[in-house]
Amino acid sequence: MMKTRRSLLAALGALLLKPFAALAAWNEQAFGAKTAADALKTLGAATPAPSKDIVIEAPQIAENGAVVPIEISSNIPGTTAIAVLIEKNPFPLAGRFEFKEGALPFVKLNVKMGETSDVRVVATAGGKHFAASKEIKVTIGGCGG
Amino acid sequence: MAAGPMKMRATMAGGNTDVRVLMSHPMTTAQSGQPLHFIQNVVVKQNGKTVIEAEISQAVSRNPVFSFRLKGGAKGDKIEVSWLDNKGETNKIESAVA
């Protein structure tokens, strides 16, 4: 009983000290997954349906794997989240973006790629998952950064 | 390299709000031989209301640059972007849509 109360107090203390951290969640299991399939399973999106309504704009060949620009948009109505997975990276899940009311399902970011790989994008809409991929060839890998 | 200042530009484009934000951060991976140090959470707010919540990994490039797009909006809207990294460091920037 005492132990429970003490850990409860400790948890409360942590909450007070780190309000932002307490609010922010980071899916350690999904980001720690070593394969894209495992990461998607953890995200509850194990079998996404292929979709042509997810647009991935990225170079076919990236000379520098440390900075590979990727622009993603989803034309699937009601898209609420987009996950980006780099299949051959040691930890494939690179990011997951949740779009609330007022945001368009669009994101542009730079990622690191260790080697030539498919980049898979999974969009969530109405509780269903959709996927598209694009291969990006990498001349010099960029995971040492 | 420690985490540094941020830069942001928010503009109206085609009736929507384009947000481009730069975060100064090492984003070091486990493969780099340096301590793992990377941004984990990014939050975008429009006039105080959360519109985008992102979780990212060490696979995002050093000094991350993101572009986001918000539906509609108007000049003068307040856009705030904040981040939190795996060491508990945090930073934010706010600017008005031009």
Written overview of the protein:
The complex is a heterodimer of chains A (145) and B (98). Chain A is of the alpha+beta class. Chain A has a single domain, classed as SoxY domain (Immunoglobulin-like). Helix content of chain A is 23%, strand content 43%. The model of chain A has no long low-confidence stretch (mean pLDDT 89). Chain B has 98 residues and is mostly beta strands. Chain B has a single domain, classed as Sandwich (Immunoglobulin-like), CATH 2.60.40.10. In chain B, strands 4-3-6-7 form a four-stranded antiparallel beta sheet, with no helix packed on it. In chain B, strands 1-2-5 form a three-stranded antiparallel beta sheet, with no helix packed on it. The mean pLDDT of chain B is 95. At the A-B interface, strand 6 and strand 7 of A face strand 3, strand 4 and strand 5 of B. Strand 7 of chain A pairs antiparallel with strand 5 (65-70) of chain B, so a sheet runs across the interface.
CATH topology group of chain B = Immunoglobulin-like
The overall pLDDT average of chain A reads: 89
What proportion strand of chain B?
over 45%
Total beta-strand segments of chain B: 7
The average pLDDT of chain B is 95
The CATH superfamily of chain B bears the name Immunoglobulins
Quick take:
The complex is a heterodimer of chains A (145) and B (98). With 145 residues, chain A is an alpha+beta fold. Chain A has 4 helices and 9 strands, in the order H-H-H-H-E-E-E-E-E-E-E-E-E.
Comma- or semicolon-separated keywords:
A: 145 residues, alpha+beta, Immunoglobulin-like, six-stranded mixed beta sheet, three-stranded antiparallel beta sheet, 4 helices, B: 98 residues, mainly beta, four-stranded antiparallel beta sheet
